């Protein structure tokens, strides 16, 4: 019943989004009205789906907003992070281990996960905008920094609007405020998002109709595929004793890949529908393509064509050929959140800290922690392979193709192997699966990490800066510019290296 309520609510949100864009357009009404309507509709959908459990959304948001207002700016972001994530974990623990009422697929902590992302993102953005100097911020942090404290209405609208209350995706506070104010179509700082045509900016408001229809078709196909395959190839069969004892190992590998492949359309359906809802409301515009058509992928949560692969994809090399590329195209907004609040700010072992935070955010099932702990080893091994093996395959197109095909196959098996505990949830079945595979990929990752050295991140960044400086200097020399320009280039390179 909960799943039915969720789908009905999202379809209602889709129709409401169209009405919101047409009749509450920024040119027709004020930001105040848009905030009020978006917030009230969000609470209505939350109550319809989850009943009075939706009050947890208000409690979590209210506690965090109080900290933002009354705590010192110097430590406010840390307190908000602890309180928001702590309250989410408390609700997940009580739901799973106290009440245990079987609402895993559509439980009230799902929306709280998205709200947690928004609360913590906003706290860090406020800290960057009000407590840090400009020279302390990275370019992306300058763009996202919030320069004034949001009002309570703005804060609730950002956290609980009807477009993202049920399934996200997360977006930055500045992007949401630009959408509400109607300035989201102005030229952005990103490349290929400025809509230039004949040297002039294209300022006319594009229509999301074609992209919404395309995404709804993707939703329909994804749902049909999932319903057709989910019962035919359950992941649980991979740990069935009779299946393991009677099936050759290569067939077990193939079955695991197909079973995991059958699960992905569920996420494609949920995330693509959420993206379509935001687009239908006029949110998600990301500039223009080279042919002048609008892009509506600013807050998309996945790139299906970059994840899945077929023969055509392999020929044009547009598939996920590494563990990192898969992660970069899957649950994109969550990956950005992890990068912005953890990876870029953690001074000690940011990779492990990021995976640990992701496990805590997902919930308290032991399978999550097994998956993300395995993910740390996978990421380190993939990094070692890429830095040590890939350069040897770049001599010709044929060798590049061989490398891409091998890494594609390895990525598919590694991803499937890693996420089995995420699906099985419990420790017993998860370890039973890994034992049936003799922990072979774990051992392979350990061997690769020990045998193939990878330079520290700051050393790799320094080398990249040096290479960029040398390339820049070479271009300057090739253009036969004045000698004082050479001196300037050399000084810039020296500054970057220090």
Automatic annotation (TrEMBL):
The chain crosses the membrane at residues 6-24, 36-59, 79-98, 367-385, 405-424, 436-454. GO terms for cellular component: endoplasmic reticulum membrane. Coiled coil: none annotated. GO terms for biological process: lipid modification. The keyword Acyltransferase applies. Keywords: Acyltransferase, Endoplasmic reticulum, Membrane, Transferase, Transmembrane, Transmembrane helix. This is Membrane-bound O-acyltransferase domain-containing protein 2. It comes from Merluccius polli (Benguela hake). The lineage of its organism: Eukaryota, Metazoa, Chordata, Craniata, Vertebrata.
């Amino acid at each position: 019943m909960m799943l039915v309520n969720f789908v009905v609510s999202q379809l209602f949100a889709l129709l409401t989004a169209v009405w919101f864009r047409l009749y509450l357009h920024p040119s027709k009404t004020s930001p105040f009205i848009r905030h009020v309507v978006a917030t009230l509709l969000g609470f209505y959908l939350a109550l319809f789906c989850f009943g009075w459990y939706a009050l947890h959304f208000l409690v979590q948001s209210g506690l965090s907003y109080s900290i933002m207002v009354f705590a010192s700016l110097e430590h406010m972001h840390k307190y908000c992070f602890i309180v928001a994530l702590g309250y989410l974990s408390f609700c997940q623990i009580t739901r799973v281990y106290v009440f245990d009422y079987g609402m895993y697929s559509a439980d009230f902590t799902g929306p709280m996960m998205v709200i947690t992302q928004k609360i913590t993102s906003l706290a860090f953005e406020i800290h960057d905008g009000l407590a840090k100097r400009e020279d302390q911020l990275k370019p992306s942090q300058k763009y996202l920094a919030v320069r004034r404290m949001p009002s309570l209405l703005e804060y609730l609208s950002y956290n609980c609007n009807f477009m993202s209350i049920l399934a996200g995706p997360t977006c930055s506070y500045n992007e949401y405020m630009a959408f509400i104010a109607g300035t989201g179509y102005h030229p952005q700082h990103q490349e290929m998002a400025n809509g230039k045509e004949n040297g002039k900016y294209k300022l006319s408001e594009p229509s999301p109709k074609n992209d919404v229809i395309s995404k709804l078709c993707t939703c329909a196909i994804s749902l049909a595929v999932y319903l057709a395959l989910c019962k035919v190839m359950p992941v649980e069969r991979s740990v069935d004793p009779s299946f393991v004892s009677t099936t050759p190992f290569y067939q077990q590998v193939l079955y695991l890949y197909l079973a995991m492949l059958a699960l992905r359309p569920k996420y494609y359906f949920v995330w693509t529908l959420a993206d379509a809802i935001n687009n239908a409301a006029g949110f998600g515009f990301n500039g223009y393509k080279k042919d002048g058509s609008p892009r509506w992928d600013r807050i998309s949560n996945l790139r299906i064509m970059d994840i899945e692969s077929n023969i055509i994809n392999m020929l044009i090399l547009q598939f996920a050929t590494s563990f990192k590329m898969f992660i970069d195209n899957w649950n994109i907004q969550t990956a950005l959140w992890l990068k912005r609040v953890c990876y870029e700010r953690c001074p000690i072992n940011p990779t492990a800290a990021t995976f640990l935070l992701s496990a805590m955010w997902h919930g308290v099932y032991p399978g999550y922690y097994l998956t993300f702990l395995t993910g740390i080893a996978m990421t380190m091994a993939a990094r070692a392979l890429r830095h040590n093996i890939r350069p040897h395959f770049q001599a010709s197109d044929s060798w590049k193709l061989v490398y891409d095909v091998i890494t594609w196959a390895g990525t598919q098996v590694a991803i499937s192997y890693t996420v089995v505990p995420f699906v099985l949830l419990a420790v017993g079945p998860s370890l039973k699966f890994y034992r049936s595979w003799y922990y072979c990929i774990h051992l392979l990752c350990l061997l690769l990490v020990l045998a193939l050295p990878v330079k520290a991140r700051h050393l790799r960044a320094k080398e990249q800066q040096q290479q960029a400086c040398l390339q820049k200097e070479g271009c300057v020399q090739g253009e036969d510019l004045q000698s004082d320009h050479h001196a300037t280039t050399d000084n810039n390179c020296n500054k970057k290296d220090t």
